[in-house]
Specification:
The protein is of the alpha+beta class. It has 7 helices and 11 strands. Strand 3 and strand 4 form a beta hairpin. The radius of gyration is 20 Å and the shape is elongated. It starts with a helix and ends in a 6-residue tail after the last strand. It binds a DNA duplex (14 and 14 nucleotides) through loops.
DNA sequence: GTGTTTGTTATCAA
DNA sequence: CTTGATAACAAACA
């Protein structure tokens, strides 16, 4: 489940490797994943100018012929972008996807760069997408997202104003909404609420000042720490030799239903809030 | 065969 | 029109 830290990790690795590279060829194996139909043709010969991220959306900005284009990529639940060199041998593994070599049955798009780098877009569920748009259009799409939690714009004032404006909604629903805060997903919302000792069922307007501040700090801490650890994918099957991040070590509640709270020992509860599996400690969180 | 998984959007009620 | 909640959707696997 790639959220902000995972997508940011991908962005950094990609930016370091492919900025300035030229796309030699694009192979689309599953046409429904990409748009428009001219995707591969338009990108042939294009040069990568930058790799950006807003919320959970990646933008690979390229100069194609005489046009500035952007490849918008959303990994959704199970998408992967894996960069290898054509001479590499893949020893890592991602057991749930059965990845032992690339490309594999979940590889839907392949970018071949001059110089031998190969970028694979894999997606077991096929919910992710790649959309090629003029860069000016990409700007509009990216700017529609809310503030980045690690940016200075995500101030305590902004957060308190947001909670006041959405006072009637579940706090969890507010945190998940990408139009308000960009990049939080189910894992980091549950983890942030735990650290702030606030139950996910609380209404946004019911948080006391000390709770609002604690939650604001928790969001920045959790996201910052996870970015530092290259994110995580909650999945017990992820091979530790693969590219999975290490933040799973710090998870306190997500996916720990019926397991003891690491702080007080009470069993973690799993309920559904905002239509999502939700985990919290009934003792620590009020 | 069925429940489970989540980000996003459509839809509906108030 | 606004707000909030919920359904639906994408597809595959244990």
């Amino acid at each position: 489940m790639p959220e902000l830290p995972e997508v940011e990790t991908v962005r950094r690795d990609l930016a370091a490797r492919i900025t300035g590279s030229t796309i030699r060829e694009v192979e689309v194996r599953l046409p429904k994943i990409v748009s428009p139909k001219t995707f591969a043709r338009e990108l042939r010969g294009a040069r990568v100018l930058s790799v950006r991220r807003r919320a959970k959306l990646l933008s690979i900005d390229v100069q194609a012929k005489s046009k500035a284009l952007s490849i918008l990529i959303h990994l959704k639940m199970t998408g992967q972008l894996v960069l290898r060199h054509k001479h590499d041998i893949y020893f890592g593994g991602h057991p749930i996807l059965g990845v032992r070599s690339l490309p594999n049955k979940y590889t839907h798009v392949i970018f071949f760069f001059r110089g031998g780098d190969v970028l694979y877009f894999n997606d077991l569920r096929q919910f992710g997408y790649l959309k090629l748009v003029p860069t000016v259009e990409a700007e509009a799409i990216l700017s529609a997202y809310g503030v980045e939690p690690l940016a200075p714009q995500f101030s305590l004032d902004y957060f308190e104003g947001l909670l006041a404006k959405r006072k009637g909604a579940n706090i969890k629903a507010v945190l998940l909404n990408q139009q308000y805060i960009a990049g939080l997903g189910n894992i980091y919302v549950d983890e942030s609420l735990f650290r702030a000792r606030v139950r996910p069922t609380r209404r946004a307007g019911s948080l006391k000042p000390v709770e609002r501040k604690a939650l604001w700090k928790a969001i920045r801490q959790v996201i910052g720490l996870s970015v530092k650890h290259r994110g995580t994918s909650f999945n017990t099957y992820v091979d530790s030799d693969g590219r999975a991040g290490k933040f799973w070590r710090y998870l306190k509640v997500y996916g720990r239903g019926k397991e003891p709270c690491k702080v007080c020992g009470t069993d973690i509860v799993r309920i559904v809030v905002a239509g999502r599996g939700t985990h919290y400690c009934p003792s620590c969180q009020k």
